[in-house]
Amino acid sequence: MALKTIKGARMTRSPNGSPQDAASSSVEICAICGDRATGRHYGAVSCDGCKGFFRRTIRKRHQYVCRFSHDCIVDKDHRNTCRRCRYDKCVKNGMRKDAVQHERDRITTAVRPPSVTSFSPSHESEEFIDNLVKAEKATRRTTVITRTADAKLPATLCDVTYSMNQQLHLMVNWARHLSDYQGFPIETQMALLRHFSAQHLVMCAAFRSVSIESDTIWLTNDAHLPRDAPKVPDVNRVTARILDHLVHPMRKLKLDEKEYVALKAIVFFDHMAKGAEEFADKINAARERALVAFEHYVSHVSPLRDSPRRMANLLLMLPPILGIARDLLEDVQLASIFGLAQLENETLMRDLMLSEDRSQSQPKTTPGESKSKSPS
User: What share of residues in the chain are helix, strand, coil (percent, to 5)?
Assistant: First the structure.
């Protein structure tokens, strides 16, 4: 029999009947993953992460399959490993499908006050991040990453050029999955792609290399670029800066995929993109949505949300991304001028990174059809 809490001090009775101090138990624990709970959701004491997972599963009618024997570990660190076992544990601990439906009915019938935006940090932020993750995974699934005979060997200049062009194709496919991007005219889309292209290359190279425990940048064909690449001396400056200012901080902060895709969206929707001035307000609104979703995830959902100044430390990577991207763009332009790399067949790279007037765009659904000018 539990004694009532008096001014914050809780006393309970142990199994043998003696009272014991249970102040430490005043913090509720999620019945599904053991993380800090935020209340009772859909019939079970749970955290925001498991609450959102169960809600999305029911609303979107997801069907999960366990790849093992339906006894996967579901805890704070492994709750995303097997969605089937996580869902089963939600149901086992009291979460009800009808509670989700009743919540939707209440939201539908409620009178929503007028506002400039209807972006709710607790619900729409999670969906925003989920859509970014889907865009990232869909791009990886539909695009074939070529693995050459030189896989896991030191990269050559040809490997670097090929990998960069391939990543730009990935970027275009990724952007097409973003609903905000789809709402812009083709000229504005091209302006955003051109402005983001070098930053995309830098961010992808860094994040792809985080899991590799070596001082190396890994390319899309599995060739690697060490800090001092003897075969590609012209890219050593950029390689070293990516490793020092992005890979190492990402590794130290344990940057996860959801934080990564949110940062990509924040960088991508830049109203300063040349040629996108007419839609600057709408681009800024898209960036604000990305920032709100990023802040909500880092502060309330991420397993590392209690880390001091985590959001600030993650955002501090944005200036190095821009600075390194400028160096990369300069190197690509110099390589083109002096013929150090064979870029005549890399149409997309020329259109996005070597165009003299980056405010001009061709009305094509896929960039890369126009002739580019060599910088004079």
Answer: 50, 5, 40
Side-chain half-sphere exposure of 176, counting CA atoms within 13 A? 12
Q: What is the pLDDT of residue 317?
A: 97
Q: Which residue has the tokens 């993953």?
A: 33
Q: Output 15 or 93, whichever has higher pLDDT.
A: 93
DSSP label at 82? Answer: -
Mean pLDDT, rounded, for 100-119: 51
Nearest alpha-carbon partner for 178 in 197, 166, 192: 192
Question: Top-level CATH class of 121-354?
Answer: mainly alpha
Q: Which of 42, 47, 20 is nearest to 32 (CA)?
A: 47
CATH superfamily ID and name for 39-99:
Erythroid Transcription Factor GATA-1, subunit A (3.30.50.10)
| Residue 64 pLDDT > 60 | yes
Domain borders along the chain are 39-99, 121-354
- Report pTM: 0.62
Report DSSP state, residue 114.
Answer: P
CA distance 189 to 92: 47
d(CA 152, CA 229): 14
* pLDDT (tens digit per residue) in 1-18: 333 333 333 444 444 444
